[in-house]
Amino acid sequence: MRSLCPILYLVCASLLSLWYVVAFIEPEPPQFGQAEPLQRLKIIFAGDVMAHSPQVSKAKRGSGYDFKPCFRYIKPIFEAADLAIVNLETTLSDTAPYSGYPAFRAPAELAEALADAGVDVAVTANNHALDAGAKGVASTIEILARNGIQSTGTFRDSTDYTNRNPLIINRNGIRLALLSYTYGTNGIPTPKGTLVNLLDTLQMKADIARCKDADCTIAFLHWGAEYSMRTSREQRTVADVLHRDGCQVVIGSHPHVVQGAEVTKRAVTLYSLGNFISNQRTAGSDGGIIAQLEVVKDGDDCQFWVDIVPVWVRHCDYTVLPKSVGDTISLRADERAAYKNFMTNCAKIF
């Protein structure tokens, strides 16, 4: 009997050792009845991409144009996101003549630079959408597509409208529906056959209803009063209507200055992102914000978190400076004063 004791001891010790190892190994997830993992999507929204004549002149390089240096400090921010979206407030053309305000017509190289910076989508419904007529609408859509940038808001014809309104994007297991609308086109009538999405709550309601299979619906609205940092009653009313109709995210443009936001985990309204890049220099119009929206999908439910990155334009070379760069880069005394003024105003809003 005594001879069995060492054997029993060894057996017990072995079993205890085995239990210890198994107890600290993570169990395999069950194959059935397991909840779906959270799906996450990081979207970047940037404001108005303008192309005033001094910007175009500054980008001139021999027989072509190079806008890429303008976005060199922004590129890492865009590339870190799953999707980057801007408001393109100019038409694009492969050939001169080019023009700025009041009828914008910019070189195709601007789209090339935006794509290089990491832009994935451009919304095109704004008051300058028809600055170059039907030809400008078509060339803008074609040049963007050629550079790998999707777009919505303006359409060559009814077939194009059906295909890209809403614009459906699938990323990271999340299905997005993107819509774009403008209050008007500076009095320019829409050419026959061409379509531009106009702010019309009944039409927007119908469009949102077509997005019922999307996990998240986003509407870009070109609205509000230019250079006013205060949101209007009309803006707030339209945003409320869209949210009630099922649009979770509303992004605003046109004022050329930053306006406030209303953000919950279920609904997001950013009333105006301001200018992403332009030659406008008056206080408030010399920059804008980049909104970083994190979409988290849990089953059939989406929740939202927003982070704001202020950006300012250094007009000597039209370089877009995020705050992290602008705080440390060398600037002239007048530039530093303008930069600080812009950042202070942004801090008051957010």
Describe the model.
It is a single chain. With 350 residues, the chain is of the alpha/beta class. The chain has a single domain, classed as Metallo-dependent phosphatases (Purple Acid Phosphatase, chain A, domain 2, 4-Layer Sandwich). The protein is built from 10 helices and 20 strands. The chain has helices at residues 4-23, 53-58, 75-79, 109-117, 133-146, 158-164, 201-209, 233-245, 323-326, 333-349; strands at residues 39-49, 60-61, 64-65, 83-88, 91-93, 105-107, 121-123, 150-152, 154-155, 167-171, 174-182, 195-196, 216-222, 249-253, 261-263, 268-270, 275-277, 287-298, 301-314, 319-322. Strands 1, 4, 7, 8, 17, 18, 19 and 20 form an 8-stranded mixed β-sheet that branches. A 6-stranded mixed β-sheet has the order 10-11-13-14-16-15, covered by helices on one side. A two-stranded antiparallel ribbon has the order 2-3. A hairpin with a 4-residue loop joins strand 15 and strand 16. Helix 7 packs parallel to helix 8. The longest helix is centred in the first third of the chain and has 20 residues, at 4-23. The protein is globular.
